[in-house]
Specification:
Number of helices: 21
Helix content: over 70%
Order of helices and strands: HHHHHHHHHHHHHHHHHHHHH
Number of strands: 0
Mean pLDDT: 84
Largest sheet: none
Structural class: mainly alpha
């Protein structure tokens, strides 16, 4: 951006351009936010925009940087682990502010959207979000590194895998929160921070005991997993739903135009409209329904099982395996969930309603399988929230090219939920 021209042309005009650009990207995504749209939204001629910026990418990058600077956090999260204080107390203090929904999360949600949209993958617009995300990941891992150092004094103990696991799990909970929690009551944020702290502490305790099978699973996860922005295996002949799903993953809802769908599928508009009422109905069938099908194992848990933790772990294994096999389904589904349209699209509404239904069914299932003494104090609702957010966060990581072995995730879920249940009654 030309700062000398910025001073000459006025801060007010520039600010309007930046704010309008963020609003447009939030609605239309990277691919379909054009200079022409920005011109119409700002009522400024294109020459005014090019006065400040050389191209669309430079403008969007500056707009994203501006949105982050306007919501600078009041505290630096995950700054330092204190070995003299209880781990659980520190975790709760770190998590509660993070799990409160606020306007400061809107830029993070937008950053996740752009990270998922394939056409934006190699653009410089990724830099503002990726820089902050990488910084947050490093702070969280450094925090856990200090925690492991305080607990595992044995010089022969390799903390690398444990730190990586705890960093990944912590980020997964936060990512799931950013994706799904637009409004959160203060009481819910406090209770969720408590139970997530218990769950993370349970995983930490297991990892301090050198669980070789978990370390091995994680280290070999990427060998057979999908890579970032890799399309699903296409059928030999173009398939309308497959093509539509891939285009949404690559270009977003708006960018998956009927022209692109017709060209990629080899079908005429009339043939498509004979099957589907409109583009929205097509995208619902191509994206929302397959995405929700990935979560089906969480709907099919047996209500009378005495081995409920093992059943839940098995279901989560199936969900994560499906997510890794179908990256376009995950990316396009999460894009529909993140784009808050007004009025909402039928595909986006289906994803929102479907994921909420899965979470509600999980809460009912927990009430059925837990002993009565453990099911009180809304523990069932919070356990359902934990599973849903962890699942979405790990699915996001897989879609962005950072998968973890599904069997290992399932294995670590058992101690996480066991520890949460064990300590819930005395800590709430």
């Amino acid at each position: 951006m030309n700062t000398s021209r910025r001073n000459a042309r006025g801060e007010a005009s520039l600010q309007r351009i930046l704010e309008s650009t963020v609003q447009l990207v939030s609605r239309y995504g990277y691919d379909n936010t054009t200079i022409a749209r920005i011109v119409r939204a700002t009522e400024r001629p294109a020459s005014s925009i090019y006065w400040f910026f050389e191209n669309k990418d430079e403008l969007i990058t500056a707009a994203l940087e501006n949105s982050y600077s306007h919501v600078a956090p009041a505290r630096r999260p995950w700054d330092k682990f204190d070995p003299e204080r209880p781990l659980l107390d520190q975790l709760r203090e770190e998590l509660e502010p993070e799990l409160r929904a606020s306007e400061s999360e809107d830029p993070l949600r937008l950053g996740i959207m752009l990270a998922l949209e394939g056409s934006a993958a190699n653009s410089k617009i990724q830099e503002p979000f990726q820089r902050r995300r990488t910084g947050a990941q490093r702070r969280i891992e450094a925090w856990w590194e200090d925690a492991f150092a305080a607990q595992c004094a044995d010089e022969g103990f390799d903390r690398t895998a444990g730190v990586g696991w705890m960093g990944r799990l912590t980020m997964a909970f936060l990512d799931g929160h950013y994706i799904s929690d637009v409004a959160v009551e203060d009481r819910d944020a406090a209770q969720r921070s408590t139970i997530v702290a218990h769950a993370l502490a349970g995983a930490y305790e297991v990892l301090t005991r050198r669980p070789e099978h978990l370390v091995h699973e994680r280290d070999t996860a990427t060998a057979s997993s999908v890579q970032p922005h890799t399309a699903e295996t296409a059928p030999k002949a173009p398939n309308l739903l497959h093509v539509t799903r891939a285009l949404v993953a690559e270009h977003g809802y708006e960018g998956a135009t009927m022209s692109r769908i017709c060209e990629a599928s080899g079908m005429k508009r009339s043939s498509i409209y004979w099957r589907y009422k409109d583009k929205d109905a097509l995208i619902k069938a191509a994206v929302a329904e397959p995405f929700l099908e990935l979560l089906a194992p969480l709907r099919e848990l047996p209500s009378t099982s005495k081995h409920w933790l093992e059943e839940l772990s098995s279901a989560l294994t199936k969900v994560m395996s499906g997510a890794q096999e179908h990256p376009d389904t995950v990316k396009s589904g999460l894009l529909l969930k993140l784009q808050r349209w007004d009025p909402p699209t039928s595909g986006g509404s289906a994803v929102l309603a479907g994921t909420a239904s899965v979470e509600n069914q999980l809460a009912v299932w927990f009430e059925e399988v837990l002993p009565a003494a453990e099911a009180k104090d809304a523990i069932s609702v919070h356990l359902a929230w934990i599973v849903a957010r962890l699942c979405e966060g790990l699915m996001l990581g897989s879609a962005l090219g950072h998968p973890v072995a599904s069997n290992a995730v399932a294995g670590i879920l058992v101690p996480m939920l066991s520890k949460a249940l064990e300590r819930w009654q005395s800590k709430v």
